Structures are given as structure tokens and as C-alpha cells.
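Bit of a strange request maybe. I'm writing a small parser for C-alpha cell strings and I need a real example to test against, not something I typed by hand. Could someone generate the C-alpha cells for this chain?
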Amino acid sequence: MLTRTCLCLIRRQTSTGTQVLLGLKKTGFGSGRWVGLGGHVEDGEKPAAAAAREVCEESGLQVSADALQHMASITFLFPDRPSWDQTAEVYLTDIYLGEPAESEEIAPRWFGLDELPFGKMWDDAKYWMPLVLAGQQVTVTITFGPDCATVAAIEPALPGAPVPLA
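Reply from user aminoacidic:
Good idea to test on real output. This should exercise your parser:
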């Protein structure tokens, strides 16, 4: 059974352009990588409510589930480590209260759209995240290779992404 997760990308406008809040994961799955804020969807919890809860737990920011725009549904498959298989509902918002603060799990930081740290994120982010931040809806299945870190295939294909071998 796939683990249900959620991600929330929070944007803000500054004098130098649009910025996105990411968090440096300090513990657990994905430790050492820059990630969108989010986590597990609890039993009986709606994914948008989970995203709002996770944002607060990880950064102290307050977001309303009603202010979250659903942008992507992603299935992540790890054939060499099926216990990592998961789905993620991805949300986007510009509406939040507070200033991000470091938690036990996340060290938050704002990044300009042209300086997103893709080299220090999960390999898949460089394919779908720019599309979502540009307002495009995405529904894909992302399969990781034997190293459980590199994308082997994305279906349906996204621009620049590896395609499955026939």
C-alpha cells in the first residue's frame, strides 16, 4: 500500500521577484535535502488539511486548507525499495500568516525562482516543480532507479525527463 503524503509550496512576491519557501530536511526521510513543506496524511485527514498542519508543524506559518490550490498528484515508485512508494498531493499558496521559523525537522529558507537548489533536492523536483510554480497542473508517476535517488522514468513524460525503455 502506498503511503499518502502532501506537499505545500508557498510563494511570496518581493522587490526582486517571486520566492518559494523550501526546507532543509534535518531528520528522517530525505534528510539533507531541500524539500517542499509537507508530510504524511493521517487516516481520515484530507490532504489539504494535512498540508496546512504540516506547514505549521515544520515552519510555524499558518495557512488555511481553503487557501491551498491543488496543483499536482504524483506517485513515487521505488522498485528497489517498495516500502518508500508513496503518493503526494501538491498544493500551492501565496496566502499565509507569520514568518517561517526553524523546527526540529526543517530549516526553512526562501529561494528565488531562478535559484532553486535542484542539485540538493530529490532528483524528480527539477522536472515537475517549475511546471507547478508556473501554474501548470501535473499528474505523473515517477519511478526511481536502483540507487533510489535518480529518476529512471516519468509517465506521462515531462519536458527533459527520462522516458522508460521499451
